[in-house]
Amino acid sequence: MHVMVVNTKAYREGMGNEAIKIAKIMEKVGKETGIRMIIAVQHADVHRVASNVEIDVFAQHIDAIEYGSHTGWILAEGLKEAGAGGSIINHSEHPVTINEIKRSVEILRKNKMESIVCASDNEIAKSVAVFQPDYVAVEPPELIGGDISVTKTKPSVVKNAVESVRKVSNSAVLCGAGIKNGEDVRKAIELGSSGILVASGVVKAKNKEKIIMEMASAMVE
Amino acid sequence: MHVMVVNTKAYREGMGNEAIKIAKIMEKVGKETGIRMIIAVQHADVHRVASNVEIDVFAQHIDAIEYGSHTGWILAEGLKEAGAGGSIINHSEHPVTINEIKRSVEILRKNKMESIVCASDNEIAKSVAVFQPDYVAVEPPELIGGDISVTKTKPSVVKNAVESVRKVSNSAVLCGAGIKNGEDVRKAIELGSSGILVASGVVKAKNKEKIIMEMASAMVE
Amino acid sequence: MHVMVVNTKAYREGMGNEAIKIAKIMEKVGKETGIRMIIAVQHADVHRVASNVEIDVFAQHIDAIEYGSHTGWILAEGLKEAGAGGSIINHSEHPVTINEIKRSVEILRKNKMESIVCASDNEIAKSVAVFQPDYVAVEPPELIGGDISVTKTKPSVVKNAVESVRKVSNSAVLCGAGIKNGEDVRKAIELGSSGILVASGVVKAKNKEKIIMEMASAMVE
Amino acid sequence: MHVMVVNTKAYREGMGNEAIKIAKIMEKVGKETGIRMIIAVQHADVHRVASNVEIDVFAQHIDAIEYGSHTGWILAEGLKEAGAGGSIINHSEHPVTINEIKRSVEILRKNKMESIVCASDNEIAKSVAVFQPDYVAVEPPELIGGDISVTKTKPSVVKNAVESVRKVSNSAVLCGAGIKNGEDVRKAIELGSSGILVASGVVKAKNKEKIIMEMASAMVE
Lengths: 221, 221, 221, 221
Prior knowledge:
The structure is a homotetramer.
Chain A lengths: L2 E5 L9 H17 L2 E6 L4 H7 L3 E4 L16 H7 L3 E4 L8 H13 L3 E6 L2 H8 L5 E4 L11 H4 L1 H14 L3 E5 L5 H9 L4 E4 L1 H4 L4 H10 L4
Parallel strand pairs in A: 1-2, 1-8, 2-3, 3-4, 4-5, 5-6, 6-7, 7-8
Helix pairs in contact in A: 1-10, 5-7, 8-10
């Protein structure tokens, strides 16, 4: 099943009640299109959003820790109890060590939570796929937040990532960075990815329902 | 007014519903004793706890960021909207750069939130007090989580911290590390501190109401 | 050709003139046994050691930077000019992000320097091998500095690392952690590794020549 | 005595033999003007530069460690043995935690080495001065590497830094960021600083002797 992940980052337009609004639109569109919807929100928003919708709510980061004296760090178990079903790991805006990637995937798996590990190119995609996360999201950092999608500028990155990941893992590949419309999404699917990871393209859109529907529809087979 | 800060860390016993239970006991004891109560919880717990009690709910850490593309980082504005009234900064389990300390205090102040900056000795207490946080919490890291309180082993650290901080700031000094009973608390107040920062001493106690009451009572003038 | 890498860490016994002494013994033993010798020294020692011996001198870490405004960071080009032929990357005592691993390997290759990327288990070994470093050194961190060698306690880690790495790369596998004598070394070679990475076992030995000769001899086919 | 510190960063023009050339010019100008000269070079260059000149050679960074298992980290003792007389700490391009600043100053002092702690504004200058480093260098990061000097744009930052530091410490204040000519230097001294910290203004100058002489002369009382 194709999946659409919306990352609200630390955007004012994706925080608190705004996050709930986006999640509700995603829930509605998800029901209509059959596309799996995941919203990755700020840690403080996980419980509120998860209490208001049935779609999956993810965190944007966890720390590679378990219960204990870890003041201020992000505990997977705490997020799980708050309603999170998984987490992004190693986003280019929050890179971690390779051991932390491995450990975080393991901790999430142990808690029956899903993992989306970000990779800035196809070689890194293959490298992180070794840890068997549920998803590997390929996002060339220079395109993140921009207006030109990775599917247009660097289609080979996506294609190579899909092939490289397949060699070492069953992780599904998501495609991110600069995705702005249905055409970008269609191209992402054509290149072999299982879905998309979007942020500003949805969160900062004026008509959020329109763009979410456009993107989701482009994934319907 | 004296203040009692309980830091739930990433303890299983201080997470989710457990955090709410502790907060409710603190609220009750706070009303009875007149001591100001602050509970510093995991980010994912802020909203749930703040929705259930009237005492102040703090975060255990914020990142020195503002709205924007900061996937996975902790935004003060997001915590504020979730109900937080402030945050711990630079806990010895989550040290940050000196510029991040300054910036975090400023960001909290701008959002009308309070700051508790941790310091591992009296010299560092003076150093961070320059940034005029609301509270400076002195915690020798070697005593954190232990059974011997700073007031017993290193009373001079607390006394010197109070004097040093006063020279450069109006920040109130809190006393932490190894505080386990009313006697430790009384000593902390005698040494000039304005309150205490406790974690395992409360969160891992079998009878939480008893120990919270004992500690709070020891602060009543 | 089998290789013996001695990492002097920040040991007093492996610094400055002591590093030169160890390097000279390694040079002598290398000539006698035909084993390739590499000494990885502190950055400040690279030039002095490299000026005194013909064996390869490596750094223990580089930062993933190139020429520019990077006060205090470690530049591969600077080490190269000082006489270094390569560097260790991602030692468990100095972990870096996955992007930094990739970038560091690339920067070293561009400067015609060799790379030894450390990995704490066979899965991480496979993951870093994707970046095609010259060497992948497998070192379970819990055994580093100890008295029980990885070849005794966890022979399967070494064997699996060799097989896993082979699937994605031509990188040679080194074996580290707790290696103390010729028998440990023989076992490492038997398990398929191309050599060893040792630190305290050599640097803190009373009779350095004896142990270096014992270890090198064990690698002679 | 006034002091001129030249930071060669990771500049190609300040590495290896180029660093030695700059150091020799500084030595010559220092003898002629009586201004104390310090060159802060890459770690790999410390020994070579220190072996070739009599002026002080500093590192651009040390890690807050002592002898031990610290692969890849920068040990003050190792730099000392290589000929370094001190180190920059907390440069805005290499920020560290407040505990690391304190610890690094202590480690340098214990090794009879001098410390230059960088601060991006006058408040941070006061904060780090609490640890009694030999020098506090005030450098607004937005001016570093630029063409407009701090003495022109933000003279009050320098003046306030000098006054703030004096309240808590005897540390001498250096002035940095954008210093390009003798006039900038004269102004820095007028504002109460004890010298300057320069980088590109000297290292990237075509006629290095001319600019070093111009800057040093401007500090002669």
